[in-house]
């Protein structure tokens, strides 16, 4: 029973140390075998404009549409 408890405590401590290293210290393992791959982004911000890259690689303005779900009467503010 002592061996089992020691193994469980050591495993728990190891997992906590790994979690601390990953989430608080930035420990990172690169699993991209076969060479380095460049990091790319398909969206970016220029001032107050959001831009999205199209299939040709050009940046186009991105419009985000949504619905206001407030409890106010349309056209009036809640005060």
UniProtKB/TrEMBL annotation:
Q: Superkingdom, according to UniProt?
A: Bacteria
What's the protein here called? Uncharacterized protein
């Amino acid at each position: 029973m002592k061996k089992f408890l020691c193994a469980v405590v050591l495993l728990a401590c190891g997992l906590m140390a790994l979690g601390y290293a990953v989430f608080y210290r930035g420990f990172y393992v690169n699993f991209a075998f076969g060479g380095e791959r460049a990091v790319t982004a398909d969206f970016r911000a220029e001032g107050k404009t959001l831009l999205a890259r199209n299939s040709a690689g050009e940046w186009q303005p991105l419009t985000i549409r949504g619905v206001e779900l407030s409890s106010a009467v349309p056209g009036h503010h809640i005060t």
